[in-house]
Amino acid sequence: MIKADLSPIEEVYLEFIEHVDNGMKNEHGRQLKYLVTGGWAVDGICGKVTRYHENVDLMVPKDNMDKFVSALYAYNEDAEVSHSGKNIHAEAGSIRADVIIMYPIGEEYAFDTPYHNDGAPVWKHLVRGQRVKLNGVGFVSLNAGALYYAKLCAIRRTSKEKNRDERDLRRLAPFVPPKDREQMRAYARI
User: Which of 67, 94, 107, 141 could pair covalently with 44 via S-S, beta carbons 3.0-4.6 A apart?
Assistant: First the structure.
């Protein structure tokens, strides 16, 4: 990891993301599916840390949850994990991780959250990862198009995060082809 220009908490989060990436491998060393989403994914796609992050958001297929939880406990054996059916919340020292559980639909994956479920048609083909590198740490990010769509859906909500989500959307726009941006706006009803 390249530590230049990182705050101590950013270093800790990137170390955690790197640990998850290394831990999400099968017995043959092949990468298991997981995706970093949210702000850390935006930063990974942009190639630099652009803002403060209070947590790391992830998506993990239901079949890989045991491996993820093992990686979490290997990172911090005192981690606290709570499960709410569709989501997992974990705290490991100064790390907060929020995990959406993905469920298989044939060869694809899907998930259901309060502000994504109305966009189900777009998620079927968008829940794909792309390998990114941030300060020397490689990880699998949700692809730029899906992140763009998620931010579009998020800004429809009235919340304290709306301004943050709008800034993330502007940062992502150059990485999403114009035609795809228009399609996402139509799906998100913006």
Answer: 141
> pTM of this prediction?
0.84
Per-residue pLDDT of the chain (190 residues; tens, 9 = 90+): 566 678 889 999 999 999 999 999 988 888 888 999 999 999 999 999 988 999 999 988 888 889 999 999 999 999 999 988 778 899 999 999 999 887 765 555 555 443 344 444 444 445 678 899 999 999 999 888 878 877 777 776 656 677 888 888 889 989 988 887 887 777 666 5
- CA nearest neighbour of 168 among 60, 41, 2: 41
What amino acid is encoded at 4 in this protein? A
Q: What share of the chain is helix, strand, coil (3-state, %, to 5)?
A: 45, 25, 30
Q: Three-class SS of residue 112?
A: coil
Q: Which residues pair with 59 in a beta bridge?
A: 35, 100
Domains recognised in the chain with CATH numbers = 8-188 (3.30.460.40)
Work out whether strand 56-61 and strand 95-105 pair parallel, antiparallel, or are unpaired.
parallel
Six token digits for residue 34: 């997981």
